[in-house]
Design a protein that fits this description.
about 110 residues; mainly alpha; 2 strands
């Protein structure tokens, strides 16, 4: 792991007209680094990243990926606690139908 700073501050300012500053910096940096994937859950940020050609994954996608790769035993039980903590402590919101549809994709 390494720490990088965004170089194109004009791009950050442009993106910050659409999303908050942190997301604007993350998108600009991902673009500069030609990142394989950007972790972002906020809908506006995901849309902007996609428009800029940056592949995006959210936290739920990370959990599902971990299940598919058998890094966790279940996407329903163990991560449910994790997902609940993310909702309670980090303010992440996932509608129940979205969670259920996602769990079905990994056979749970």
């Amino acid at each position: 792991m390494r720490v990088e700073s965004v170089k194109n501050l004009d791009q950050v300012i442009q993106f910050a007209r659409i999303v908050d500053r942190g997301e604007a910096e993350a998108i600009a940096l991902a673009k500069e680094l030609r990142a394989d994937l950007l972790l972002m859950d906020e809908r506006k940020g995901r849309r902007l990243a996609a428009r800029e050609g940056i592949p995006v994954i959210g936290l739920l996608g990370v959990v599902l990926l971990a299940r598919r790769k058998q890094l966790i035993p279940s996407a329903r039980t163990l991560p449910r606690t994790l997902l609940q903590r993310l909702q309670d402590e980090a303010g992440m919101y996932l509608a129940e139908p979205i969670k259920e549809a996602a769990l079905r994709t990994v056979g749970e």
